[in-house]
Amino acid sequence: MSKPVVLIAEELSPATIEALGPDFEVRSADGANRDELLPALADVDAVLVRSATRMDAEAIAAAKRLKVIARAGVGLDNVDVQAATQAGVMVVNAPTSNITSAAELAVGLLLATARNIAPANQALKGGAWQRSKYSGVELLDKTVGVVGLGRIGALVAERLKGFGMKIVAYDPYASPAKAGQLGAQLVGLDELLAESDFITIHLPKTPETLGLIGDEALSKVKPSVRIVNAARGGIVDEAALARAIAEGRVAGAGIDVFATEPTTESPLFDHESVVVTPHLGASTEEAQEKAGIAVAKSVRLALGGELVPDAVNVSSGFIAEEVRPGIPLVEKLGRMFTAVAGSVPTQLDVDVRGEITEHDVSVWKLVALKGLFTDVVEDPVTYVNAPVFAEQRGCVVRLVTDPDSGDFRNVTTLRGTLADGSVVSVSGTLTGPKLVEKLVGVNGYDLEVPLTEHMLVFEYSDRPGVIGNIGRILGDADINIGGMQVSRQQDRAIGVLNVDSAVPAALAAELSDVVEARTFSVVDLQD
């Protein structure tokens, strides 16, 4: 069997290749070269990129086998997450790989602007000894405004606290308790702008934050303020900042990111009091190694068919180890549901009962949807696009939990309401030390049948000879019965047969006629 193909579209740490291991065919391409990238994507299962490779809708459409886009870093400006989601392609990044490096660069830029390090360096190397011209300011007792108190902003606040600075912060999503732990005071943006001697930006780039620090904001700051942006280009309006510096309304700036990258032109470059770097936030050996290893591990999980909890476009959250063994069971129950129901429900309840409810089992909603649509739609169904299929077909899924499981330690039931108002349910559990997957209920009938690749489920009027006739017909077709169970309710019964091979549609129709079945379903759980 051929190995999955992983394309390395940019230079990554050698540790990335080592973390992938020997189970993949690894290829390389210049992701920045469109003519080279698009053909190279044709038959790959995963692509690893940094910031120079644009994985837009065109690139995703060119990659017919693509399952994972892995961005070895934090930002996803170069990845069309919506197009990837529609195509069922998982998008993963390394959200914590560069936070220390980015925080340290922000502090470095702030220090550089405070002490005029860059222009003094350039002047001295040019032959000028100008101590008085490049006199700076101390950080001690100054106020720094941290705009965005996420992971990087928090690290910056911690480090600047060590310089004896007063920390104020603006973040509408941060709690006063979190700010208090960092020694910061939460304030409104206008108050931060007015009070701060230094301002450092740590926000994501969104429609709301684009141009946030522009003409209006810069009209509210002290003329002695110094502004640092090592987050995302475009949050600070470069032209507005350049005008404010030229007019003496801002003392200086440290800028690592720009609205257009790469760039060698900006109005900020004309000012000696501005320190600029070419997007170096994540450019440390440590950050690159952490990012490469993190996304390589995610690629291994994704190509192995497993959930990646921190995938950008998969709403799964943390998955406890106790919850993971139930994932294949719940997916199979989803496939069995559509086989028995013959349609997609308008509402699906994932009813989980037993000790397992001590843990967060919300991921089973996603898993159930993946199983539900696997045999229904033509497109490949993944953990990424299963919620999209559900939304398109008007299927609402909800989780119901109860610590009381009755006869079993744990039991999961998928109960769905169909468009005609009828209700279909299938229940399953894991039994014994080997965690054997078993079907323990269908539409209110109690059972205990191993889940196998090929199964028949049929409801009929209970009478002698039915099972014998089925056995005879399957025997004539050279299909062996591996196991069976009948469950009865008054004059009705349900039969579940485990068979060793697939049952063709014509044979299933013949069996249904012989049984005079109320319902007859062929369940195929083969991958």
Number of helices: 17
Shape: elongated
Q: Indicate the low-confidence ranges by residue numbers.
A: none
User: What's the total count of β strands?
Assistant: 22
Q: Describe the main β-sheet briefly.
A: 7 strands, parallel
Query: What is the distance, rounded to the nearest whole angstrom, between the alpha carbons of the first and last residues?
Result: 15 Å
Mean pLDDT: 92
What structural class do the secondary elements suggest? Answer: alpha/beta
Strand content: 15-25%
What is the C-alpha radius of gyration, as a whole number of Å?
30 Å
Q: Kindly report the spatial arrangement of strands forming the biggest sheet.
A: 8-7-6-9-10-11-12
Notable characteristics:
single chain; 527 residues; alpha/beta; seven-stranded parallel beta sheet; six-stranded mixed beta sheet; 17 helices; elongated; oxidoreductase; D-3-phosphoglycerate dehydrogenase
Description:
Pfam families: 2-Hacid_dh (PF00389), 2-Hacid_dh_C (PF02826), ACT (PF01842), PGDH_inter (PF19304). It is an enzyme of class 1 (oxidoreductase). Belongs to the D-isomer specific 2-hydroxyacid dehydrogenase family. InterPro entries: ACT-like_dom_sf (IPR045865), ACT_dom (IPR002912), ASB_dom_sf (IPR029009), D-isomer_2_OHA_DH_cat_dom (IPR006139), D-isomer_DH_CS (IPR029753), D-isomer_DH_CS1 (IPR029752), D-isomer_DH_NAD-bd (IPR006140), NAD(P)-bd_dom_sf (IPR036291). The protein is α/β, with parallel strands linked by helices. It is 31% helix and 24% strand. It is built from 17 helices and 22 strands. The protein has helices at 14-20, 34-40, 57-62, 81-86, 99-115, 117-125, 151-161, 176-181, 189-195, 215-218, 238-246, 285-303, 326-341, 363-374, 386-392, 466-476, 505-515; strands at 5-8, 25-28, 46-49, 68-71, 90-93, 143-147, 166-170, 184-186, 198-201, 226-229, 252-255, 274-276, 347-354, 396-402, 410-417, 423-431, 436-442, 445-450, 454-461, 481-489, 492-499, 519-524. The strands form four sheets. Strands 8-7-6-9-10-11-12 form a seven-stranded parallel β-sheet, with helices on both faces. A six-stranded mixed β-sheet has the order 14-13-15-16-17-18, with helices on one face. The longest helix has 19 residues, at 285-303. The radius of gyration is 30 Å and the shape is elongated. The two termini are 15 Å apart.
